[in-house]
TrEMBL record:
Pfam families: LuxC
Species this protein is from: Paraburkholderia monticola
Transmembrane segments: none
InterPro entries: Ald_DH/histidinol_DH, CoA_reduct_LuxC
Signal peptide interval: none
Protein name stated in the entry: Long-chain-fatty-acyl-CoA reductase
GO biological process: bioluminescence
Amino acid sequence: MNKPIAPMIIRGEVITDNLIEVGGRGGDLAFLTPDAHRYLDALPLGNPAKLADLYELSFDDILDFAVALGARLDLTTNAHLQQACELSYRTAPTTPSLVKSSYLGLRHMLTREAIVEAVDSTVGIKYLEGWVSQRLIDGTELEIRCFGSRALHIVAGNSPAVSLLTILRNMVLRSDAIIKAPSNDPFTALAIARTMVDMAPDHPLTRHLSVAYWKGGDEAFEERLYQPHNLEKIVAWGGFASMKHVSRYIQPGLELISLDPKRSASIIGADTFASESNVSEAATRLASDIGALNQKGCVNARVVYVQCGTDAAGLKQLDGFGRAVYEALQNLPNSLSTPAKRYDAGLKAHVDALRLDDEWYEVIGGKDGEGAVIVSKISEPVSFSTQLDDRTVNLVPVDSLDEVMDAVDAYTQTVGIYPEALKDELKNRLPLHGAQRIVSLGYAVAMKWAAPQDAIEPLRRMGKWISNQINTPHLTPGPWQRPPLA
């Protein structure tokens, strides 16, 4: 059987020579790709002055290109996307229906209105289009503009949308991007880049995008590429080990923008139990936050703190709520969530062990890889809470929300909250403990790129913010005009 080819794309050129065999994550697919070592000298842009052609484009020109690209990212007609989607069924951490749903959604990310909204609410379009002037109180005229950069993007492979978001961010900033395709999604960024080549091979936006696959941790390759004369920014998504590895290359002139591993949680307030309808709604919303992307995202709930109390009556309420959550998990649409592609054996062993400890835990489901709800009878998460995955959640009873604050730290990304009114009590407290995103329960996966991410604004960080300071001595006395000391 012929192995599929993942080409290398360097600024409009599709390369299929000097192929070597590599494997996707999990060992389900071997594919061929150009040996990145052979093209190392061609990957970097080199002289940053070569970004100048991007400044011949207006922001409207960039919008026109993005919208035209979106029209071509239709899975029903785009052969590159179709091939990438089929191959991703084997490499992705999620099941085929979730992969297909993600590919179907790509084209909807590139609407003019959504791009304008996101860019204007983060960077500010006026700062991308020209110098923005202001008069300071000492008479100084200060001009500020955001310029693009030469960037390497080490993208996550848990969702195809990450690759398109990376390409879109690069376009609006007028940057030059090298995308390192991940082993669990080596095809999405390539398919998008090939679509750009088909659409407009000589367009500056096409000519400032490169996509390549190389094995992470290849020090001989990375030590030559990850240098300030090649790159100004490294935007890295990934786990603890990969972040620690890439940080070794950071030096003056080369900045790391880290979108590093996070955990997310949910808080269910006492008022949830005021009515059966509240309980039902909260269970459905929580199931969505657990099950979306089959719990492969940082945004997914894993530990849920439920203010039901720890007395017998409270634990009975929690058990009933847990069963409602389990039932809702099973009824999620297959475009959002499914039983696991491959339920983690180590996790299953932990879960099965808790079944024997019914004094402290109640385990609902999980025998067939469909997901499980672990109901704790004490106010502490299970010892393996950081390993919860594949639609496996731990419900933890608490008497007071003060107990939850101790569990929130710098690794906490998203906190889903129900009922909505509870947010007013918590939204000024949670960030002080480390929480980075607060969201209505059920909407954890509905991230907005107009919002900050991981407590930073990646789009702003990816740009270079340049100032031009204009002074005249009659308005702002110069340093040389200071009176002498007595």
